[in-house]
Amino acid sequence: MSSVDMRVRIGALELRNPVMTASGTFGSGKEYADFFDLARLGAVVTKGVSLEPWPGNPGQRIVETPSGMLNSIGLQNPGVEAFCDNDLTWLARHDVPVIVNVVGHRADEYAAVAERLEQESGVHALEVNISCPNVDAGGMAFGTTCPAAAEVVRSVRAVSTKTLIVKLSPNVTDVTEVARAVEAEGADAVSLINTLLGMVIDTRTFAPVLARGVGGLSGPAVRPVAVRMVWQVSQAVSVPVIGMGGITSAEDAAEFLLAGASGVAVGTANFMDPTTTVGVVDGLERFCQERGIEKVTDLVGAAWKR
Amino acid sequence: MSSVDMRVRIGALELRNPVMTASGTFGSGKEYADFFDLARLGAVVTKGVSLEPWPGNPGQRIVETPSGMLNSIGLQNPGVEAFCDNDLTWLARHDVPVIVNVVGHRADEYAAVAERLEQESGVHALEVNISCPNVDAGGMAFGTTCPAAAEVVRSVRAVSTKTLIVKLSPNVTDVTEVARAVEAEGADAVSLINTLLGMVIDTRTFAPVLARGVGGLSGPAVRPVAVRMVWQVSQAVSVPVIGMGGITSAEDAAEFLLAGASGVAVGTANFMDPTTTVGVVDGLERFCQERGIEKVTDLVGAAWKR
Amino acid sequence: MCGHGPTPAIEPVVVVSNERVATGVCRVVLDAPRTAATVEPGQFVHVRIARSADFILRRPFSVHRARGERLEIIYQVVGRGTRVLEDARPGDVMDVLGPLGHGWTVPEGTTRALVVAGGLGAAPMGMLVERLAEADVQITLAQGAPSAGRLLARELFDSLCRRSVVATDDGSAGTCGFVTVLSAELLQRERPDVAYVCGPEPMQRIVAGQCAEAGVACQVSLERLMACGVGACLSCVVATRHGQKRACVDGPVFDAADVVWDSDEDPEAER
Amino acid sequence: MCGHGPTPAIEPVVVVSNERVATGVCRVVLDAPRTAATVEPGQFVHVRIARSADFILRRPFSVHRARGERLEIIYQVVGRGTRVLEDARPGDVMDVLGPLGHGWTVPEGTTRALVVAGGLGAAPMGMLVERLAEADVQITLAQGAPSAGRLLARELFDSLCRRSVVATDDGSAGTCGFVTVLSAELLQRERPDVAYVCGPEPMQRIVAGQCAEAGVACQVSLERLMACGVGACLSCVVATRHGQKRACVDGPVFDAADVVWDSDEDPEAER
Ligand SMILES: Cc1cc2nc3c(=O)[nH]c(=O)nc-3n(C[C@H](O)[C@H](O)[C@H](O)COP(=O)(O)OP(=O)(O)OC[C@H]3O[C@@H](n4cnc5c(N)ncnc54)[C@H](O)[C@@H]3O)c2cc1C
Ligand SMILES: Cc1cc2nc3c(=O)[nH]c(=O)nc-3n(C[C@H](O)[C@H](O)[C@H](O)COP(=O)(O)OP(=O)(O)OC[C@H]3O[C@@H](n4cnc5c(N)ncnc54)[C@H](O)[C@@H]3O)c2cc1C
Ligand SMILES: Cc1cc2nc3c(=O)[nH]c(=O)nc-3n(C[C@H](O)[C@H](O)[C@H](O)COP(=O)(O)O)c2cc1C
Ligand SMILES: Cc1cc2nc3c(=O)[nH]c(=O)nc-3n(C[C@H](O)[C@H](O)[C@H](O)COP(=O)(O)O)c2cc1C
Ligand code: FES
Ligand code: FES
């Protein structure tokens, strides 16, 4: 069968295929390099990196839910310096674009991380995770109000020339509003969805299972919500959309592309099968071949471009 | 074992136990009366009833998703007159409180339905479903903005002396805001969650599976989101909360009570097993007995009342 | 004679056998005394294939035959649920909700009936031809399938029908072409009192049209995606001249003259 | 001797046998040539028990023994996953991710070892006592369980340990009381070079304290809820004197002196 052009473009960045890893589910790639060649991926998206080391949340951090899981890892990470020394150095030896997920509690913290990463040629794009609690605004996530989201993006954009992806929260009334707000501030792409806020209560102890109470819901359970939001956002903005939420197979990934995503990321499914991402890459190529589709980009938004 | 006091109070209404049916999943009860005695239930909540007959949505109306389903029934119903003649008359012959789910496209439509039902002694409470598209405000659901939600509740409250339950949408940034807004307008209770907006795209046809595109996600997949919202809302308002979203068993129901719900409703699970509700009633009683809990109300909010 | 059975119930059932009967099609026999004793031709059961939480919905299947305490279902393996069903082994336990729905009716004074089955449309015809044969109705049956290997229940049909003809898309058995060619001819030639039709919806629409033209009463069995199966959820509506009806309780069998056919291309048509 | 095995891989495995060995506890034997050949004592496998979409997470289990091409796992039936595992029949196929984690280490010059196992803590001790016996280390083993019927792997332990004693909560076998009474006494009396401990976390904390007091090197095997099992997700962290470590790659076996014990009541303690 003829080969399919699998390349996609996210801002200035050309990826060899649309399949990435979802932040926080793939470490910095090292842990999965035993299972396949990372160069097979469109990009590696790292876990969230903050200015200073973050300890993460206490206690029980995960719980399984019907077709999903909650996590309350709390963005544990060693801070941007240690990240550059260890993870980036290791990743630089691999032929795969690196997208660094950036986190902070205040807009200036995000900017400081972006500034530090600006010097690193091994960083190909930033994914600004605006789902962290906004300390200045009382703990509500940046990603849930347009002004706060815009402020974070503005301050990062001011110091970074790298491709800027903004990761949107699904815990909002109208995700297109936030998407438009960050596009207006110069985001080169948006990615969605981050996790839905959820809770499980232990009926033996009568207390929430997670030490923090609430956690983030991910996995196949959330896929219909994610597809709906990708469909909405991709029609509301003109920058590319990276879709994620419950992708386990090439069919699932195709659903996101058809909904309007230019790229996809695999998260929770890595836990079940560490080779999920490469399976999605191969499966997507076959999906196109079987239908005589020459470029994977022909799938993008096909469900609404009629 | 000693018997458990299973009674709960929702506004002026005393229910013999906390277990209800979720609107739209139980018809008006008739269809399930073959399987058990409706008098076993805390209450029957009917499907949505509008002023005039509504035809509902075209085409494929449901699709299965991981641990959930999407529906786009579109509130098909014969209108309040036919509802009173047929469904209410039938229900009046059963010893079970009746809660009528009320829908409309404008605030005055809701009020007109409430007014018509005011004369019916067989109606014990209204559940005002503010998740319908608000025609006057361009189609965004009433339940997603506080002013629109407040307006609907105000206009219904003005004409109705019945116990008023307001059913909240989960598709909002901060569900406690809407809850407080409707409480301020005189709601006697709130119920949540209605369905999450979702979409499934058919990878064979490249089009959304549901004729309407988006649909409402329900079932176990959404349970962690529902429990989280019940936990939040029950701490934010002082009226009782009725919790629902993915309840399939007594354990699931207990989770909602512990999170702060005074009553629960079973929806999607009725489709898998028509006797789910009575199983939940019996199971909840056993749950209390096994733990030496004398009143089911002792469970309410136990996860945060410490 | 009425198409409605007694009140439905949940019945735990045991798999007696489960085997392939045609390309991509299997027959499962279930030990289901209550349902087997009460089901009427054209009714269906709503099967809980697996208990895992990701099977939110039951799957509806027509009862092909009911013999003694046993139900026979003929099913095509098309998706997640039927793939799990295919793996069921004798002794496995599942449960059925049934009998459900409004089945075929035999109008007073019927002496000649035409049965038209396309693909899996043969499934609900088993009990029907048995019932018709018992009532001494002369049956002509026209069956269509993609190829000879996918014809179903030939033995039963051949033994009970006065005449039994087939059409295959590839000509590997009987007439080459669609079953609607056979039905057109048979309606003209035999002038039956009533026609019973099941298969892909476009095929049912065509045969219904042929019957209307020929002035022959026609009953069709329509498929809809079903959640509750008992009339509560309105996921299965069919547009009729008397308003929207529920396929699960008002159908699946409808008087073809009542049905308002969907003029849009039916997405299920491919099956 | 190092507790790390070779790089992990996904290996499809076939169930050879699966049977109850104690009240609420089963042993499954898996045909898993690659993993069986490479696993080190104290390592674990991450098992994909079922393929259905509602099993989002694998389940971690210590390798009890590895013999030829086969892995033995001893597991307690506690929840959804282990209930499904309990139903697995010979011939069923699943897959394991493994071998994973950092297992037991035998310090240079060890001649006497104390093994302390509480409840399912006996599971990771099978390969350990085999390895110690091979290295001619004299083993004393103290095992605790709620009752006689829940003691595990007695035959193996009795045959390889110089001394093997038990304690049960109800006194139905051995000493009546907790295994920590035995360990306190044995540490004083035998002065082992090293102690290996696995069981409920509060019990491990107590034995670790006894070892610290007695000046005996102590290794503990800690359980955490695990998503990835390979070090990527940080769901399994353990507080240590050298910062937060991941139980799945830096453990499950830790030097007890490094562990910062959780002073709060451990919710897993009930098990
Ligand atoms: C009254 C009635 C009788 C039927 N009788 C038979 C029969 O005798 N033999 C047979 O092979 N098939 C029959 N069908 C179709 C059968 O229900 C579907 O093929 C089956 O549910 C597909 O399940 P799946 O999980 O394998 O497919 P999936 O596509 O994975 O199913 C997903 C969902 O779609 C539903 N679904 C998919 N296709 C259909 C369909 N065509 N009609 C209704 N629901 C569907 C399933 O119930 C499930 O909810 C009948 C359908 C109805 C409504
Ligand atoms: C390194 C390691 C080795 C283990 N070895 C054994 C063993 O040899 N024998 C044995 O019986 N058990 C062992 N366990 C515990 C075992 O993993 C759990 O009992 C099992 O996962 C429970 O699964 P479930 O679906 O039945 O329970 P559920 O409570 O339904 O499980 C839900 C989730 O919780 C996880 N989980 C539940 N309890 C535990 C636990 N105590 N530790 C880790 N994850 C848990 C499951 O992986 C799953 O993600 C080990 C745990 C770890 C971390
Ligand atoms: C354990 C875990 C950790 C995560 N950490 C991060 C993170 O550091 N930064 C971030 O932007 N998203 C994080 N996420 C969210 C995922 O990147 C992804 O958006 C979400 O899980 C939905 O995709 P999935 O269903 O495929 O997992 C995390 C998710 C999980 C499950
Ligand atoms: C088929 C279907 C129809 C529904 N119709 C209504 C309705 O008419 N009015 C309403 O307020 N909610 C309606 N709902 C939402 C349910 O009442 C409930 O809030 C939701 O499904 C979550 O509960 P569950 O997960 O137990 O189903 C409907 C849900 C389903 C699945
Ligand atoms: S399937 Fe629910 S009304 Fe027909
Ligand atoms: S289980 Fe993922 S880091 Fe340990």
Task: State the gist of this model.
With 306 residues, chain A is of the alpha/beta class. Chain A is 30% helix and 19% strand.
Structure, described:
The complex is a heterotetramer, with 2 copies of chain A (306 residues) and 2 copies of chain C (271 residues). Chain A has helices at 80-92, 107-118, 146-159, 175-184, 223-236, 250-259, 269-272, 276-290; strands at residues 8-10, 13-15, 19-21, 44-49, 62-65, 68-71, 98-102, 125-129, 163-167, 189-192, 196-198, 215-218, 241-244, 263-266. Chain A has 8 helices and 14 strands. In chain A, 64% of the residues are buried. Chain A has a single domain (8-56, 74-201, 218-305), classed as TIM Barrel (Alpha-Beta Barrel), CATH 3.20.20. In chain A, strand 9 (163-167), helix 4 and strand 10 form a beta-alpha-beta unit. Chain A is of the alpha/beta class. In chain C, helix 5 (179-190) runs parallel beside helix 6. Chain C folds into 2 domains: 9-100, Translation factors (Elongation Factor Tu (Ef-tu), domain 3), CATH 2.40.30.10; 112-265, Nucleotide-binding domain of ferredoxin-NADP reductase (FNR) module (Rossmann fold, 3-Layer(aba) Sandwich), CATH 3.40.50. Chain C starts with 8 loop residues before the first strand and ends in a 16-residue tail after the last strand. The radius of gyration of chain C is 17 Å and the shape is globular. Classes of the chains: A alpha/beta (306), C alpha/beta (271). Chains C and D meet through loops of C and loops of D. Bound molecules: flavin-adenine dinucleotide (FAD) (2 copies), flavin mononucleotide (2 copies) and FE2/S2 (inorganic) cluster (2 copies).
